[in-house]
Amino acid sequence: MNAARFDAIVIGGGHNGLVTAAYLARAGRTVLVLERRPLLGGAAVTEEVFPGFKFSVFSYVVSLLRPEIIRDLNLPRHGLQILPLESTVTPLDNGDYLASWADPDETRRELCRHSPHDADAAVLFGRVMHHMAMAVKPILGMVPPDPTSLSPADVMGFLRLGGHFRSLGAERFHALHKLMTMSSADYLDEWFEFDPLKATKSASGIIGTFLGPRSPGSAYVLLHHYMGEIDGAFRAWGFQKGGTGAISESIARAAQAFGATIRTGAAVERVLTRDGQATGVALESGEEIAAKVVVSGLDPRLTFTKLVEPKQLPDDLVEGVRRYKFRGSSGKVNLALDGLPDLTCLPGVGPHLRGAISISPSLAYLERAYDDAKYGEFSSHPYMDIVIPSMIDPGMAPPGKHVMSIFVQYAPYALNGGWNDAKREAFGDAVVATLARYAPNLPSRILHRQVLTPADVERITGLSEGNIFQGELALQQLFFLRPVPAWAKYRTPVGGYWQCGAGTHPGGGIMGGSGRLAALEILKEGA
Amino acid sequence: MSRSFDAVVIGGGANGLVAATALGKSGLRVLLLEAAEALGGQSRLVEFAPGFRAAPLATDPGWLPPAVARATEIDSPARLSVEAPVTIAAAGEHLTLWRDTARAADAIRPLSHADAKRWPSFIARLRKLAGFLETLYRVPPPDVNAPAGELLSFIGLARRFRGLGREDMLEFLRTLPMSVWELLDDFFESGLLKAAVAPGGMVGVRQGPRSGGTGFALLHGLVGAEAGVARGRAPWRDGPEAFTRAAHEAALRAGVTVRTGAQVARIEVRDESVAGVVISTGETISTSRVLSTADAARTFLGWVDPVWLDPEFLHAVRNIRYRDSTAWVLYALAGLPEIPGLTPEALRGVITLTPSLKALEQAADCAKYGSMSERPHVEVTLPSLHFPGLAPEGKHVLVARVQHAPYRLGNGTAWDAAGRETLERAVTDAIAAVIPGFVGRVLHRTLLVPPDIEARFGLTAGAASHGEVALDQILFMRPVAGWARYATPIAGLYLGGAGAHPGPGVLGGPGWLAAQRLLGNRPVRAGESS
Fold it and tell me: Amine oxidase domain: which residues (chain A) (predicted)?
């Protein structure tokens, strides 16, 4: 056994693992982070996939990163720099477009063009969603209490929660209940009449989730994505200068500044235990490293069935992990371009290319895309969320050239017949062909293309079934049920072995909430 | 002529009869108004061909909470004691889920040993979780703004909840938002078994088995069901109208004046308070209290002058989703149909004809886009097996329940003859595929699409549910958020139909609770015995 002994070892150098490490190091603990890949970040990485072209390969925009983490870890000093993505343009099938711009007045005029009713409704809607995000915010920052427990901490937790809900008042509580239970399409139907607007808004409710806009539960995912906060502004998405990998690096630098040690290319094979207590880890290389505390940033399936022996765990936990739904549903296409796409609805180079382009022309379009996936095929006409990072951050591509990041849904992990090279290329072709309907010059601009299916995401990042949230954000997998009932407080049945990934509350997106809460719980135990 | 009553109850279905009885017993002079010529609401019989009758909406008669029966002194009718199992029959395969758990497990075993082993624990869990819903359904919905005094009732509820035990408590919370697909996948591997159980989660919803919340819908349909039952409540021994007769007698004993054939035209409001009810003949009945058991849309959008309602309330009522998307085909048959391989005993319950979860999901897809399913989910019952009086001697009635058939077809078009013909043929084909010679036995058939149900039963959009049984439309959200406790923005006007908590399938449940509210009675505590 290696002579070095750490207070804590964090398995996985994704952003949550790094956040946990940084908080533990900040509290004076000796911490070692072990990352299997040669680079840090997990799904938040920047890679030069083609010479001169850098991509945020998987996760590509940021808005959910908790402000307290940015403050506590002083991330701006370590390189965090978010450039705002200000607009969203949805090309419509009739050759027109629907846009929202940085300037609210301009957005209002644009909406009025399509529906004066919706322009008015949007103002109220924005206010309600803001209140809802505020209502949920305290919950994101709390360790989920166990409703079945009578321990003073849990009872207090629930009383606090009850008090919080009562303080919202009936109207907001009811609105929150609707968001927690409805489909995003039904929810938006109550507000708006212009279908492409509903479609574009509902798209936030399906991202990363195997749900259609008409599936109950998708409204919560919509809210989850509304909670992003950049400089105090809700629902503001941004792009990290240098790609999302630079976020991971800034957290890593903060951790190192607090004294944490980080090793890449160090794949953990299993957690070492003695008498039901974690004692360290064994690497695939055979090296063993001792530690008082071991924290897994991997998803629940890996945390409970790969890193430890399931027979060390109670049956209900093993059964709960088996039932936990991953169901990756999204893919990613990264394009290296020798010029900009020309949208038929907004020709030429304009401010719209500095924001997001959403391929969501109607609710039925999105729902049909889901229907394809439901029966095991990738969407022939998928939903896409497109950004051109090189427009905002020219360093991402060689001069005059561009990178385009295309988030695509749906691409089911469990594809009929399984994924292979031919299917991957067919999926990439469907994406490009669909996009060409709105930007006919795009295919001729493509220099290189990287297509990532959920199977690729799993293979490269380790995320089970390629689910970007380490498990679906479904109501039955949230809060005190995430990842598994009774094991939602970052602990595991193995003493000194903890979980800190997005498979715990509050879940996915580059948020860091799980990593922070896990660290605080570990420190509370006096580890 | 104008007459005056202390209270008028609108609707002569289960809720109306129970509410009127409760009000009458408390000493009020009560008038019950029913638009149809007969009482019974959704359990009313339809004579669809000479000598052939059926109660299509009451295949599952629902649960009568014992406390409601006791308090109203309704002679609770007996249930059929013979088996009424769930059978799935499709393309040469079949499976019967008997109420006797061991017998059901025996039937499952040829499909999967593992599933047979898990069946008893699955069915016991459903019973336990549905049992907790029963507790919730005896009391008004919990409300975040409830006065402190009522918190006591929640403590009782919390104690009951805890009584489930740690594992079942968590399972309860987990199951409600789940899809019935996921729920069944957690337990079973046999596709046929899963397809047999899943349709229970599709009753009263537009969604397919893959949609969140269908887990709740499945449990909701099992409230008050006997142990071992996978689907619904057993029929009354004395026919579909047994409860109506018993409740009618109780109402008369309580001094209620009952008028049938009295269609409400509007509810008169003065100074934001109820002043009376006008019926379609122009007659005005003056009263200061009206308890409507019609659905919320019909009551507020149909009968109340909108000047008395604030726009937000109206907006909320308009947003209630009435979209059961269910049609019925009633068949008059020359003889008893046979399904090869099935004993007559297996035909006594619900026979579901959709062979897989995938086919069920596909049947639901079309409704999302406003069209009817090309291959709808069809399940049939043979009520004349239990009640020979529903058909002429030696003949039979077959009721087919069909999903999905939306109220309005795509682009708001109405059902035309061609659309009806297409749906009817699809249903007949589905039945003929499992019953050889079925078409030759059909003497007559009647299709009831949602607009027909709306016209015949006074249900908005033909929704027997009075509002989709979805998680955002139950408890304190039913019928609309902020108005879940039976009172409405109009003083003296109360809602007590299935559109209010605890919703459809609980006979007299909403009516009873609404009557208590009207009378100003303290709500029953959940902890109190039933």
Answer: 17-519
For residue A212, what is the nearest residue in chain B, using CA coordinates? Answer: B211
In this prediction, residue B225 has a pLDDT band, given cuts at 50, 70 and 90, of: very high
Residue B417, domain extent? 326-457
Q: Is B170 on the interface with A (CB under 8 A)?
A: yes
- The nearest CA of chain A is from the CA of B250 a distance in Å of 38
Both B482 and B448 in a single domain? no
A486 touches chain B (CB under 8 A): yes
pLDDT above 70: percentage of residues in chain A: 97
Is the CB of residue A375 less than 8 Å away from at least one CB of chain B? yes
Give the rounded percent of residues in chain B with a pLDDT score beyond 90.
88
Calculate how close chain A gets to B364, using CA atoms only, in Å: 11
Q: What is the CATH number of the domain that holds B513?
A: 3.50.50.60
Sign of torsion, CA B165 B170 B175 B177? positive
3-state secondary structure of B99: coil
Same domain (yes/no): B371, B478: no
The confidence band for A354, taking pLDDT boundaries of 50, 70 and 90, is very high
Statement to judge: residues B255 and B368 lie in one domain: no
Residue of B nearest to A487 (CA): B170
Closest CA to A405 of A44, A89, A56: A56
Domain A2-43+63-81+242-325+471-524 has CATH 3.40.1190.20: no
Q: Enumerate residues 6+ apart whose C-beta is below 8 A from B258.
A: B12, B20, B31, B32, B34, B39, B248, B251, B252
B88 in a structural domain: no
Chain A residues within 8 A of B472 when measuring between CB atoms: 177-178, 181-182, 186, 216
Cis preceding-peptide flag for A398 (omega within 30 of 0): no
Q: State the total domains in chain B.
A: 2
B448 with B515, same domain: the answer is no
Encode A235-255: b = buried (16+ Cβ within 10 Å), e = exposed: bbbbbbbbbbbbbbbbbbbbb
Q: Measured between alpha carbons, how far is A512 from A519 in angstroms, rounded to an integer?
A: 11
Say if the ipTM goes beyond 0.90. yes
Residue B127 lies in a domain: no
For B379, half-sphere exposure in the C-beta direction (CA atoms, 13 angstrom radius) is 28
Interface A-B, measured as beta-carbon pairs within 8 A, has a size of 97
Burial of A441 (0-12, 13-18, 19+ CB in 10 A): middle
| Stated pTM of the model | 0.95
Cα angle B143, B146, B149 (rounded to 5 degrees) comes to: 135
Packing angle between helix A104-114 and helix A116-140, nearest 10 degrees?
130
Chain A touched by B471 (CB under 8 Å): yes
Closest-approach residue (CA) in chain B for A175: B481
Q: Are residues B334 and B446 in the same domain?
A: yes
- pLDDT at res. B154: 66
Question: How far is B104 from chain A, CA to nearest CA, in Å?
Answer: 25
Q: Do A323 and B471 touch (CB under 8 A)?
A: no
Residue A159 CA to residue A157 CA, distance in Å, equals 6
Dihedral (Cα; B420, B423, B428, B430), 10-degree rounding: 180
pLDDT digits (tens, 9 = 90+) for A91-108: 999 999 999 998 889 999
Closest CB to A215 among B145, B211, B358: B211
- Encode pLDDT of A473-522 as tens digits: 898 999 999 999 889 999 999 999 999 999 999 988 888 999 999 999 99
Instruction: Write the residue in A170, A323, A481 that is nearest to B186 by C-beta.
Output: A323
Q: How confident is the model over B372-386, as a mean pLDDT?
A: 96
User: Pick from B410, B434, B457: which residue ends a domain?
Assistant: B457
Is the CB of B212 less than 8 angstroms away from the CB of A171? no
Residues B440, B373 share a domain: yes
